[in-house]
User: Fold this.
Amino acid sequence: MVAGQPHPSSVTSSDPLLRLVGISKWFGPLQVLDGVNFELSAGETHVLAGENGAGKSTLIKILGGVHQAEAGRIILDGQPVRFANPREAAAGGVVIIHQELSLVPSMSVVDNIFLGRERSRGGWLLRRNQEEEARRVLGQLGLRVDVHRSVGTLPIAVQQMIEIGKALALQARVLVLDEPTSALSEPEVEQLFARMAELKAAGCGLIYITHKLEEVYRIADRITVLRDGRWVATTPAGQMPAPLLIRHMVGRDVDLAGARDEAVGAAAGPVALRVEDFSVAGSRRGLRPAVDRVTFDVRAGEVVGLAGLYGAGNSDLLSGLFGTLGRRVSGSVRLHGEPYEPTSPACAIRRGLALVTNDRQRTGLVLGLDVAANVTLASWPRVTPGGWLRTARELEVAARTVQSLRLRAASLRQNVRTLSGGNQQKVVLAKWLCTGPRVLLLDEPTRGVDVGSKQEIYALIREWSAAGHALLLITSEMPELLLLANRILVMHGGRITAAFTRATANQARILHAAMGGEPVD
Amino acid sequence: MRRWEANQLTEQRDSAVPAPAPALRGGRAGELWSNPAFTAALALALVFILGLIFSGEGAFYKWGTHRDALRQASVFGILACGMTVVIITAGIDLSVGSLLALAAVAFSIFSIHWGWSPWVAIPLCILVGGACGLVSGSLVALCRIQPFIVTLAMMVFARGLAKWVSGGMKVSTAVPAADGTYTYVGVPAIFRTIDSRWFGGNLSVVTVIFLLCVLVSWVGLARLRWGRYLYAIGGNEEASRLSGVPVAAMKMVAYTLAGLSAAVAGICQAAQEQQGDPEAGSGYELSAIAIVVIGGTNLMGGRGGIGLTLLGTLIIGYIEKILSINAVGEASRLMLTGAIIVIAVLIQRRRS
Assistant:
């Protein structure tokens, strides 16, 4: 595909503040950016849009000196520049505010603002000078906060402001915000937008990444769309209505017809899981509910896909159903017609639920233990009658479970740490298979596994559905969702905003709904 | 090992799979060096060779020296058994030295002053130790306070309690009366029994108790379901919780066991000293941690075992003994011990 240059925009009156020309980047054999062009004018908010994996973050990281591009140039103020690390980028006036804040919670506001570039004379900190400067930059943001307070005690929104204050103290001229609102409440978002407008007025160029349509059209002057590591389009926001934006993000030539034929035909049985008015409260006070009164059901033998972008609440929904969120959940859940209270994972397992979490290293595996111990981890009461460990029985159960998974391991006594990502994921799947579940909750079951393992996991999902298990599936890979799911529910802002059948689902519609767009047709 | 070979996974379709690993996790040199049991055993052998060279004018060639080395290491070894269990859950217990003193004082009061039967006194003392451990465990598991802080508080508290019940004095066979005079009573038979030697004077009873503690801990950690739970919690607490492991209950069990082992050690200590000293056991918690670490149990939790702790106890015990038969002063002895701990941890880090 020939991308071409972004056409000179009517917004730019003079030379742009920043130009990225022909940026290419490989991770090993995989090319993640292919000759991407991008430009930013002073006093402009430029939204960078694209699906997961389109290359937005990589592009930003190259700009900020985190990664180095294999090809292409960065031109700042008409001068070619090259940033070897984030420190150099900051010195050059390019500051990135990542999704995860980079503040030290235990340190004071002023210490955070000057962290790593403290003002000193002869080794002595110029404390008074730093405090005055900190008050000045925070004052510019309209933020009145005690600069001696430790950052961890302040609300997230204020922390975000302080991060911006830090950028101001660095005299940033290019400020990149990567999904800054995902942890913010409604009024906090308003505050942030007001500050951004002030920065714009002061001549700062802003690059903004978001997955929310309403935000795009509220703040964008221009929009650039990336897809599969390539530049697709750059236009003033007014010239790219939502349907066009979505079409650019998805691409016109998506062909899923062939793939879909081999998917399972839904031999839907009786309702296995019924969820009514189910809510999960926000993780802290003042935050909207993570899941907001959702109602749906999953039949035996059915794979229901849960689509949604980062922060949509679909992961919280699965965790809530599995009982890991304790008292934050409310609503009614029925399993095979019987009432079910999601109070603890142990209870969920007893009732035939299984949750494959989206982070196998952190929440899936016990890395110090071997394959057999990990596979039987959730079934130990069954493999250890009377509390006695029976090595032979443990190995027999583990061997029987992994048999259908085509696991590649030297032995069942191999430490799971030494397995490849795909095989580790199979151990996680085996662990849950071993508990004899009837309702499987799968959160990104193919994250970070190689292509071969992916196909094997797809095959497993089909096998389980054919065996009459009810499956609820989250995946951020749209083709995977369309391939596996019999039905797709789309979540946005904690609510189910759309439901598609196999016949009505397509990538553009799902993405549109996931970004909070009104239903069209 | 033989049993599981039959069950080994051999990849049916893919012939390029490496052959099943033999015993001791792979015969390759790299694998061997990464096995903590091997490095600990090697360290013990080195210490032994040092003993043969610096034999203290032949003292190292006498069984009596070994018997005493084992006897002197036993109390520390008993503490280390409980400590191992806690450390495997990625916790720490600083209170075991104080709990030892509390149990020693309580046992002496019950047996010497009050003349209770050992069948009552011993279980009661062990119960006291276990109860204190349970309190620590509950604070760690239910209130989610850091183990270091909780057990530091318990260390101070239990020391205070030991001083309070003993009136700040050693509880010995000299029993103070109300009028300030002392009456002298005999040493209870149980004290003599615990401090005696069996098998023709070849093995101290405290060593037998230590080995029993090792056996019980080994069965618990390696052969019972809850042992596996402890490893899983230490390895990945969140994954364990999501897999239905009763995390809070198991943590309480771990600290309770540390308390129980401290009480057993306290009873042994009292019997050996023939008195209950409220100042006893201070700093012992650090020795116990050192033994566990030198054995090769990972302070980050999830890896290690009681066999390693047995090796660690022997290493520390023999180093102490070799230094003492060569009349090395206490100052040098402490410095050497510190250096050895650092070296052991460096070896441990190279492994991971």
